[in-house]
């Protein structure tokens, strides 16, 4: 198949970022990412030989790694992240998608500009004993005043007391780290604290961009 297909990692405002291009390990063995732009929007892409990529563990991790590279690129970029698997047949199809979803992308960029996603899971230790309601209240008291937004994720285990994602201003990252550290000091004997990130803010972006190929 042709290698003219475009695999999309996310969308940037090229008026702020300019064109992005750098060499890196990309999805499906590609070695370069770059922007395909329409007006002031740019899709950060790599070349791929399919519009239906298989989501292997390796490529899912590469997708996230590339997003982090873009976020850190040349002093830092705001990117609206796409979930794994968005691929389009050619530049024309992709530009049509950018044109159609332009208002939604611009709103999403405004919501996440200068912000990162951080994750917090609290898991009961084997012999831990805690009051779940008290823990949730304490977490909210510490973190909600710092975070711009928070969302509750699935509790996929009986031992999982809390599973939240937070949208945090980059300027507030240190304060957020310190608040998590206080929670760990307070509950560390009874709870395993899993603090992860930063991520591109997947949990705070919901942009439908239409069919993957036309």
UniProtKB/TrEMBL annotation:
Main localization (coarse): other
BP GO terms, sorted: gas vesicle organization
Keywords linked to the UniProt accession: Gas vesicle
Domain of life (superkingdom): Archaea
InterPro entries, alphabetized: GvpL/GvpF (IPR009430)
One Gene Ontology term, aspect cellular component: gas vesicle
Entry's localization field: Gas vesicle
Assigned protein family: Belongs to the gas vesicle GvpF/GvpL family.
Record-given protein name: Gas vesicle synthesis protein GvpLGvpF
Lineage of the organism: Archaea, Methanobacteriati, Methanobacteriota, Stenosarchaea group, Halobacteria
């Amino acid at each position: 198949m042709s290698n003219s297909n475009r695999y999309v990692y996310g969308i940037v405002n090229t008026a702020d970022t300019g064109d992005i291009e750098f060499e890196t390990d990309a999805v499906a063995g590609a070695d370069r990412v770059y922007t395909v732009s329409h007006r002031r929007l740019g899709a950060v892409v790599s070349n791929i030989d399919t519009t239906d990529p298989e989501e292997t563990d390796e490529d899912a991790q590469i997708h996230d790694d590339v997003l982090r590279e873009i976020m850190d690129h040349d002093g830092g970029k705001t990117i609206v992240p796409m979930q794994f698997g968005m691929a389009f047949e050619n530049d024309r199809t992709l530009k049509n998608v950018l044109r159609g979803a332009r208002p939604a992308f611009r709103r999403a960029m405004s919501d996440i500009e200068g912000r990162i996603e951080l994750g917090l899971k609290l898991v009961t230790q084997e012999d831990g004993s805690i009051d779940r309601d008290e823990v949730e209240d304490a977490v909210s008291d510490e973190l909600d005043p710092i975070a711009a937004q928070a969302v509750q994720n699935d509790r996929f285990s009986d031992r999982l007391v809390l599973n939240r994602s937070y949208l945090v201003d980059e300027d507030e990252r240190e304060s957020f780290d310190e608040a998590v550290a206080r929670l760990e000091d307070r509950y560390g004997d009874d709870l395993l604290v899993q603090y992860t990130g930063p991520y591109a803010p997947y949990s705070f972006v919901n942009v439908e961009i239409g069919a993957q190929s036309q």
